[in-house]
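Moderator note: this is an archived Q&A kept for reference. The question asked for a predicted structure of one protein chain; the sequence and the answer are reproduced below.
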Amino acid sequence: MFSLGCVYYFVLTNGDHPFGEPFRRQSNIVTGECNLNKISQNPKGILQLINLMISQDASRRPPLADVLAHPMFWAKDKVLSFFLDVSDRIEKEDENKCGLLRRLESNGTAVVRQDWRDHICTHVAMDLRKYRTYKGHSVRDLLRALRNKKNHYRELTPEAQESLGHIPEQFVDYWIFRFPDMLPYTWLKFESVKHEPIFSKYYPKAFSFNEGINGESSIYEDEEDYVPDRLGVTDENLRGGDKSPKIDKNFWRSKSQFKTQKWRQQQQKNHLRENPSNFVSFGTRYSVNSQPVPNSAPSFSSPDTDNSWRVSKQ
Protein backbone atom coordinates (compact mmCIF):
# COMPACT_ATOMS: atom_id res chain seq x y z
CA MET A 1 0.00 0.00 0.00
CA PHE A 2 2.87 2.36 0.81
CA SER A 3 4.49 1.69 -2.55
CA LEU A 4 1.19 2.14 -4.38
CA GLY A 5 0.72 5.55 -2.77
CA CYS A 6 4.17 6.59 -4.00
CA VAL A 7 3.29 5.34 -7.51
CA TYR A 8 0.02 7.33 -7.53
CA TYR A 9 1.92 10.49 -6.62
CA PHE A 10 4.61 9.74 -9.23
CA VAL A 11 1.96 9.43 -11.96
CA LEU A 12 -0.02 12.51 -10.94
CA THR A 13 3.10 14.72 -10.80
CA ASN A 14 4.94 13.40 -13.85
CA GLY A 15 7.76 11.78 -11.95
CA ASP A 16 8.05 13.39 -8.49
CA HIS A 17 8.36 11.40 -5.27
CA PRO A 18 6.38 12.28 -2.10
CA PHE A 19 9.54 11.90 0.00
CA GLY A 20 11.76 14.13 -2.09
CA GLU A 21 15.02 13.71 -3.97
CA PRO A 22 16.89 10.36 -3.92
CA PHE A 23 19.73 11.47 -1.62
CA ARG A 24 17.30 12.38 1.20
CA ARG A 25 14.44 10.05 0.36
CA GLN A 26 15.30 7.21 2.72
CA SER A 27 15.73 9.46 5.76
CA ASN A 28 12.48 11.28 4.94
CA ILE A 29 10.64 7.95 4.80
CA VAL A 30 12.03 6.96 8.21
CA THR A 31 11.00 10.28 9.77
CA GLY A 32 7.71 10.50 7.85
CA GLU A 33 8.53 13.83 6.20
CA CYS A 34 6.59 13.87 2.94
CA ASN A 35 5.68 16.74 0.66
CA LEU A 36 2.61 16.52 -1.56
CA ASN A 37 2.61 20.13 -2.72
CA LYS A 38 3.15 19.23 -6.37
CA ILE A 39 -0.53 18.29 -6.53
CA SER A 40 -2.18 21.70 -6.68
CA GLN A 41 -5.78 20.61 -7.31
CA ASN A 42 -7.63 18.29 -4.96
CA PRO A 43 -11.15 17.98 -6.39
CA LYS A 44 -11.63 14.36 -5.36
CA GLY A 45 -9.67 14.24 -2.12
CA ILE A 46 -6.61 12.73 -3.81
CA LEU A 47 -4.18 14.33 -1.34
CA GLN A 48 -5.93 12.84 1.69
CA LEU A 49 -5.97 9.40 0.07
CA ILE A 50 -2.27 9.39 -0.83
CA ASN A 51 -1.37 10.76 2.59
CA LEU A 52 -3.14 7.78 4.20
CA MET A 53 -1.53 5.27 1.85
CA ILE A 54 2.02 6.45 2.67
CA SER A 55 1.37 6.94 6.38
CA GLN A 56 4.14 5.86 8.79
CA ASP A 57 1.47 4.12 10.84
CA ALA A 58 0.58 1.04 8.81
CA SER A 59 -2.76 0.71 10.63
CA ARG A 60 -3.92 3.98 9.05
CA ARG A 61 -3.36 2.68 5.52
CA PRO A 62 -6.61 1.53 3.87
CA PRO A 63 -6.97 -1.96 2.38
CA LEU A 64 -6.68 -2.13 -1.39
CA ALA A 65 -10.36 -2.90 -1.99
CA ASP A 66 -11.31 0.13 0.12
CA VAL A 67 -8.94 2.40 -1.78
CA LEU A 68 -10.94 1.61 -4.90
CA ALA A 69 -14.08 2.88 -3.13
CA HIS A 70 -12.53 6.36 -2.82
CA PRO A 71 -14.01 9.22 -4.94
CA MET A 72 -10.67 9.45 -6.77
CA PHE A 73 -11.88 6.48 -8.84
CA TRP A 74 -15.49 7.52 -9.32
CA ALA A 75 -16.95 8.19 -12.75
CA LYS A 76 -18.76 11.49 -13.29
CA ASP A 77 -22.20 9.88 -13.18
CA LYS A 78 -21.44 8.42 -9.74
CA VAL A 79 -20.23 11.80 -8.48
CA LEU A 80 -23.47 13.39 -9.66
CA SER A 81 -25.57 10.62 -8.13
CA PHE A 82 -23.82 11.12 -4.80
CA PHE A 83 -24.49 14.87 -4.77
CA LEU A 84 -28.17 14.30 -5.56
CA ASP A 85 -28.54 11.69 -2.81
CA VAL A 86 -26.85 13.96 -0.28
CA SER A 87 -29.08 16.90 -1.17
CA ASP A 88 -32.27 14.84 -0.93
CA ARG A 89 -31.13 13.38 2.41
CA ILE A 90 -30.73 16.73 4.20
CA GLU A 91 -33.02 19.16 2.39
CA LYS A 92 -35.90 18.88 4.88
CA GLU A 93 -33.78 18.40 8.01
CA ASP A 94 -33.91 20.84 10.91
CA GLU A 95 -30.44 22.09 11.83
CA ASN A 96 -31.46 22.28 15.49
CA LYS A 97 -32.19 18.55 15.54
CA CYS A 98 -30.06 16.99 12.80
CA GLY A 99 -26.44 16.46 13.83
CA LEU A 100 -25.52 15.37 10.29
CA LEU A 101 -26.64 18.72 8.87
CA ARG A 102 -24.84 20.68 11.58
CA ARG A 103 -21.62 18.83 10.89
CA LEU A 104 -21.99 19.48 7.17
CA GLU A 105 -22.36 23.22 7.75
CA SER A 106 -19.93 23.62 10.67
CA ASN A 107 -16.74 23.91 8.58
CA GLY A 108 -18.19 24.65 5.17
CA THR A 109 -16.78 28.16 4.61
CA ALA A 110 -13.91 26.89 2.45
CA VAL A 111 -16.30 24.66 0.49
CA VAL A 112 -18.62 27.51 -0.51
CA ARG A 113 -15.67 29.93 -0.85
CA GLN A 114 -17.32 32.40 1.55
CA ASP A 115 -20.41 32.79 -0.68
CA TRP A 116 -20.97 30.26 -3.46
CA ARG A 117 -23.37 32.58 -5.28
CA ASP A 118 -20.45 34.85 -6.18
CA HIS A 119 -18.75 32.04 -8.11
CA ILE A 120 -21.51 30.82 -10.44
CA CYS A 121 -22.12 32.35 -13.84
CA THR A 122 -24.80 34.98 -14.42
CA HIS A 123 -27.01 32.74 -16.57
CA VAL A 124 -27.27 30.06 -13.87
CA ALA A 125 -27.76 32.67 -11.15
CA MET A 126 -30.58 34.31 -13.12
CA ASP A 127 -32.35 30.96 -13.35
CA LEU A 128 -31.85 30.13 -9.67
CA ARG A 129 -33.60 33.28 -8.46
CA LYS A 130 -36.82 32.44 -10.33
CA TYR A 131 -38.05 29.79 -7.93
CA ARG A 132 -36.55 30.19 -4.46
CA THR A 133 -33.85 31.90 -2.43
CA TYR A 134 -30.52 30.33 -1.49
CA LYS A 135 -28.10 31.02 1.36
CA GLY A 136 -24.65 31.77 0.05
CA HIS A 137 -22.85 30.43 3.14
CA SER A 138 -24.72 27.11 3.17
CA VAL A 139 -23.28 23.86 1.81
CA ARG A 140 -26.79 22.40 1.82
CA ASP A 141 -28.06 25.20 -0.42
CA LEU A 142 -25.12 24.82 -2.79
CA LEU A 143 -25.93 21.12 -3.15
CA ARG A 144 -29.61 21.94 -3.61
CA ALA A 145 -28.83 24.40 -6.38
CA LEU A 146 -26.82 21.70 -8.14
CA ARG A 147 -29.62 19.18 -7.65
CA ASN A 148 -32.33 21.53 -8.91
CA LYS A 149 -30.42 22.50 -12.04
CA LYS A 150 -29.84 18.84 -12.88
CA ASN A 151 -33.46 17.80 -12.33
CA HIS A 152 -34.82 20.80 -14.23
CA TYR A 153 -32.13 20.92 -16.87
CA ARG A 154 -34.55 20.89 -19.80
CA GLU A 155 -36.39 23.89 -18.38
CA LEU A 156 -33.23 26.05 -18.30
CA THR A 157 -32.54 28.81 -20.78
CA PRO A 158 -30.23 27.88 -23.67
CA GLU A 159 -27.59 30.17 -22.15
CA ALA A 160 -27.73 28.40 -18.78
CA GLN A 161 -27.60 24.97 -20.46
CA GLU A 162 -24.57 26.03 -22.46
CA SER A 163 -22.81 27.24 -19.29
CA LEU A 164 -23.55 24.03 -17.36
CA GLY A 165 -22.70 21.76 -20.29
CA HIS A 166 -23.87 18.23 -20.97
CA ILE A 167 -24.91 15.86 -18.16
CA PRO A 168 -23.06 14.28 -16.45
CA GLU A 169 -19.47 15.05 -17.54
CA GLN A 170 -19.53 18.78 -18.25
CA PHE A 171 -22.24 19.43 -15.67
CA VAL A 172 -20.16 17.86 -12.88
CA ASP A 173 -17.03 19.67 -14.07
CA TYR A 174 -18.88 23.00 -13.87
CA TRP A 175 -19.49 22.58 -10.13
CA ILE A 176 -16.27 20.79 -9.22
CA PHE A 177 -14.15 23.43 -10.98
CA ARG A 178 -15.79 26.19 -8.95
CA PHE A 179 -15.99 24.27 -5.67
CA PRO A 180 -13.12 21.75 -5.63
CA ASP A 181 -13.54 20.90 -1.92
CA MET A 182 -17.22 20.03 -2.20
CA LEU A 183 -16.84 16.32 -3.05
CA PRO A 184 -14.13 15.23 -0.56
CA TYR A 185 -15.62 17.36 2.23
CA THR A 186 -19.17 16.10 1.77
CA TRP A 187 -18.02 12.49 1.30
CA LEU A 188 -16.17 12.48 4.62
CA LYS A 189 -19.05 14.13 6.49
CA PHE A 190 -21.57 11.61 5.17
CA GLU A 191 -19.51 8.59 6.08
CA SER A 192 -21.49 8.59 9.33
CA VAL A 193 -24.60 7.45 7.41
CA LYS A 194 -22.92 4.84 5.22
CA HIS A 195 -25.08 2.21 6.93
CA GLU A 196 -28.13 3.69 5.18
CA PRO A 197 -28.92 1.64 2.05
CA ILE A 198 -28.79 4.60 -0.32
CA PHE A 199 -25.27 5.56 0.82
CA SER A 200 -23.73 2.12 1.31
CA LYS A 201 -22.56 2.00 -2.32
CA TYR A 202 -20.36 5.06 -1.79
CA TYR A 203 -18.28 3.74 1.14
CA PRO A 204 -16.21 0.71 2.14
CA LYS A 205 -17.92 -1.48 4.70
CA ALA A 206 -15.25 -1.54 7.41
CA PHE A 207 -12.51 1.04 6.88
CA SER A 208 -13.23 4.61 8.05
CA PHE A 209 -11.56 7.27 5.91
CA ASN A 210 -12.89 9.97 8.21
CA GLU A 211 -11.18 8.38 11.19
CA GLY A 212 -7.95 7.88 9.27
CA ILE A 213 -7.84 11.44 7.92
CA ASN A 214 -9.37 13.47 10.75
CA GLY A 215 -9.00 11.10 13.68
CA GLU A 216 -12.77 11.24 14.26
CA SER A 217 -15.29 8.49 14.64
CA SER A 218 -17.57 8.08 11.66
CA ILE A 219 -20.54 7.18 13.87
CA TYR A 220 -22.49 10.03 15.45
CA GLU A 221 -25.69 10.39 17.40
CA ASP A 222 -28.04 13.31 16.83
CA GLU A 223 -28.56 15.51 19.86
CA GLU A 224 -32.02 16.77 20.64
CA ASP A 225 -30.76 19.36 23.15
CA TYR A 226 -28.42 21.07 20.70
CA VAL A 227 -26.56 24.21 21.79
CA PRO A 228 -25.42 26.27 18.74
CA ASP A 229 -21.93 27.31 19.91
CA ARG A 230 -21.06 23.74 20.85
CA LEU A 231 -19.92 23.11 17.26
CA GLY A 232 -18.98 26.68 16.39
CA VAL A 233 -22.27 27.40 14.60
CA THR A 234 -23.49 30.88 15.43
CA ASP A 235 -27.08 31.94 15.93
CA GLU A 236 -26.71 34.11 12.85
CA ASN A 237 -25.91 31.03 10.78
CA LEU A 238 -28.97 29.25 12.15
CA ARG A 239 -31.17 32.20 11.25
CA GLY A 240 -29.88 32.01 7.73
CA GLY A 241 -28.22 35.42 7.32
CA ASP A 242 -28.24 36.69 3.77
CA LYS A 243 -30.57 34.40 1.85
CA SER A 244 -30.46 35.78 -1.68
CA PRO A 245 -27.94 35.18 -4.45
CA LYS A 246 -25.93 38.27 -5.35
CA ILE A 247 -25.19 39.47 -8.86
CA ASP A 248 -25.32 43.15 -7.98
CA LYS A 249 -26.81 44.94 -4.99
CA ASN A 250 -30.27 45.33 -6.56
CA PHE A 251 -30.48 42.10 -8.53
CA TRP A 252 -31.94 39.95 -5.78
CA ARG A 253 -34.03 42.70 -4.15
CA SER A 254 -36.72 43.02 -6.81
CA LYS A 255 -40.32 42.68 -5.64
CA SER A 256 -41.96 39.41 -6.61
CA GLN A 257 -45.30 39.28 -8.37
CA PHE A 258 -46.35 36.61 -5.94
CA LYS A 259 -45.99 38.99 -3.00
CA THR A 260 -48.14 41.66 -4.64
CA GLN A 261 -50.82 39.16 -5.70
CA LYS A 262 -51.07 37.73 -2.19
CA TRP A 263 -51.40 41.23 -0.77
CA ARG A 264 -54.19 42.16 -3.21
CA GLN A 265 -56.08 38.93 -2.51
CA GLN A 266 -55.91 39.52 1.23
CA GLN A 267 -57.08 43.12 0.86
CA GLN A 268 -60.08 41.99 -1.19
CA LYS A 269 -60.98 39.35 1.36
CA ASN A 270 -60.76 41.88 4.19
CA HIS A 271 -62.90 44.37 2.28
CA LEU A 272 -65.59 41.76 1.55
CA ARG A 273 -65.72 40.79 5.22
CA GLU A 274 -66.24 44.42 6.17
CA ASN A 275 -68.79 45.02 3.36
CA PRO A 276 -70.61 41.72 2.76
CA SER A 277 -73.23 43.32 0.47
CA ASN A 278 -70.62 44.32 -2.09
CA PHE A 279 -67.87 42.58 -3.98
CA VAL A 280 -64.94 44.00 -5.91
CA SER A 281 -64.41 43.30 -9.60
CA PHE A 282 -61.74 45.00 -11.71
CA GLY A 283 -61.68 48.06 -9.51
CA THR A 284 -65.51 48.65 -9.60
CA ARG A 285 -67.88 47.79 -6.77
CA TYR A 286 -71.31 46.27 -7.47
CA SER A 287 -74.17 45.98 -5.06
CA VAL A 288 -76.32 42.91 -4.63
CA ASN A 289 -78.83 44.22 -7.20
CA SER A 290 -76.01 44.42 -9.81
CA GLN A 291 -76.09 48.23 -9.93
CA PRO A 292 -72.69 49.95 -10.20
CA VAL A 293 -71.59 51.78 -7.10
CA PRO A 294 -69.03 54.60 -7.29
CA ASN A 295 -65.60 53.24 -6.56
CA SER A 296 -64.99 54.74 -3.16
CA ALA A 297 -63.12 51.86 -1.62
CA PRO A 298 -60.91 52.98 1.24
CA SER A 299 -57.24 53.41 0.48
CA PHE A 300 -55.05 50.56 1.62
CA SER A 301 -51.45 50.49 2.66
CA SER A 302 -48.96 49.31 0.07
CA PRO A 303 -47.86 45.67 -0.22
CA ASP A 304 -44.41 46.77 0.90
CA THR A 305 -45.65 48.01 4.26
CA ASP A 306 -48.55 45.67 4.92
CA ASN A 307 -47.51 42.22 6.12
CA SER A 308 -50.96 40.90 7.02
CA TRP A 309 -50.89 38.46 4.07
CA ARG A 310 -47.83 36.77 5.55
CA VAL A 311 -49.79 35.37 8.50
CA SER A 312 -50.48 31.72 7.79
CA LYS A 313 -53.88 30.25 8.59
CA GLN A 314 -53.88 27.78 11.44
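Archived answer notes: The first helix runs from residue 2 to 12.
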